[in-house]
Design brief:
By secondary structure, the protein is of the alpha/beta class. It has helices at 9-20, 25-32, 43-70, 74-93, 102-120, 163-168, 171-177, 191-195, 206-217, 235-245, 261-269, 280-288, 293-300, 330-338, 366-380; strands at residues 125-131, 134-141, 150-156, 181-185, 222-232, 252-255, 316-321, 345-350. Helix content is 46%, strand content 14%. Helix 12 packs across helix 13 (293-300).
Length: 385
């Protein structure tokens, strides 16, 4: 993993995410240069400085985009605005829940991202799916070169990612070239569902996955028999849980095998393993709607896949980085071993030869993106050539 702040894994994780989402190294270096000492400060002080530096760059890019728009250069404006949206969401996810200006920063990110999406003319667009009297928001990316109903891969977030981050991280565009559409989803506990709808996370992923499947299956442009689901990081728990209890899914993919998240939390209480975000325990309580750590830990007790995976009877892919410092490699083997009834189960460990050795291959997502896209194409009826 690229290490700009050797004493701060959480900050370096954010830097690597920004790179994988299309950030420019020159811009990232400029944003990080004044933050060397801030990276050693307590969370509140450090993340405030991080936000100021990254938001400043985003604002500059927005100004440059306006220059492009004034000259009718909408495609160039789109690329600048998309990078601005990248830097804004990276800054936002570093802030504590309830911190001054965080919600405004998130709304700024959304406005910037969807302006970029519209100007870029890539074909993707925002959708809303009814759920519990509210809605789940998503980004729908149509397949390329497909006539008639198309296969779809639903993509769900991890603990602290959002649908816009996942869109920028390239998977939907790569799938589209293979003839597979994408629905990138803010499931409960993430993105808009958490921040704007107050829909918190739950262990029974099928509770939201089934209505999402039904919404897709009702579309004339979707083949209901070819809908799969993929999840990254904590989504590596949600996706197999959803497939196990919603048998109409045609395949499943775990980008990071989060087999026993309750155990991960117990280890984190003992300061074992790396945290994904600053203010970790406050963030966890917010995501799950818990009143304190004890309440959160009680909810986390349900977050495991033992006794669940033998229900899966469709193809399933498990990927994991060999040197993942958040989720131990042993859980990838546990997930694979328990997929006893899958007609095509695959376990791919990304190592020094392939690259992508860290958590969810954030150090180099190229190899895992190829792997996931090809597996989805082969199981959902897309193309690999």
């Amino acid at each position: 993993m690229f290490r700009y702040f050797p004493t701060n894994y959480v900050w370096d994780l954010s830097v690597n995410l920004a790179i994988e989402m299309g950030g420019r190294m020159g811009e990232i270096a400029e944003m990080c240069a004044p933050l060397t000492e801030a990276a050693k400060a307590p969370d509140a002080d450090g993340t405030r400085a991080f936000r100021e530096s990254w938001e400043k760059m985003a604002n500059r890019l927005e100004g440059l985009a306006q220059d492009d728009l004034a000259r009718g250069r909408t495609l160039s404006a789109s690329t600048k605005l998309m990078r601005a949206a990248n830097y804004l969401i990276i800054a936002e996810r570093m802030q504590a829940h309830g911190s001054d200006g965080r919600l405004a920063l998130y709304r700024h990110h959304l406005a910037t991202f969807y302006q970029a999406l519209s100007l870029g003319r890539g074909g993707a667009y925002r959708v809303e799916i009814p759920y519990q009297g509210k809605h789940l928001s998503g980004i729908f990316m149509p397949a390329e070169g497909v006539t008639g109903p198309q296969p779809v891969l639903i993509q769900v977030n991890g603990f602290d990612s959002t649908k816009e981050m996942r869109y920028m991280a390239q998977l939907p565009g790569l799938l589209a070239k293979r003839g597979i559409a994408s629905l990138v989803l803010d499931q409960p506990g993430t993105g808009e569902a958490l921040r704007l709808q107050n829909l918190t996370a739950r262990h029974d992923a099928e509770h939201w996955a089934t209505p999402v499947y039904d919404w897709l299956a009702a579309r004339a442009d979707v083949d209901a028999a070819r809908i799969g689901i993929e999840g990254v990081s904590l989504g590596g728990y949600y996706a197999p849980r959803a497939v196990a209890f919603e048998p109409r899914f045609a395949c499943g993919i775990s980008w990071g095998a989060n087999h026993d998240w309750r155990d991960v939390q117990k280890r984190r209480l003992e300061r074992e393993g790396d945290f994904p975000v600053p203010h970790y325990w406050a963030h966890a309580a917010w995501v799950f709607g818990a009143k304190d750590i004890d309440d959160f830990m009680a909810r986390a007790e349900h977050m495991h896949l033992d006794g669940v995976l033998d229900r899966i009877r469709v193809p399933y892919l498990v990927t994991h980085g060999k040197h993942d410092t958040q989720i131990p490699l042993k859980w990838a083997h546990r997930t694979f071993d328990q997929l006893l009834n899958s007609p095509r189960r695959e376990l791919v460990i990304f190592d020094e030869r392939t690259g992508g050795v860290m958590h969810s291959s954030v150090d180099n997502s190229g190899p895992v993106l190829d792997c996931i896209c090809d597996f989805a194409a082969e199981t959902l009826g897309g193309r690999t050539a």
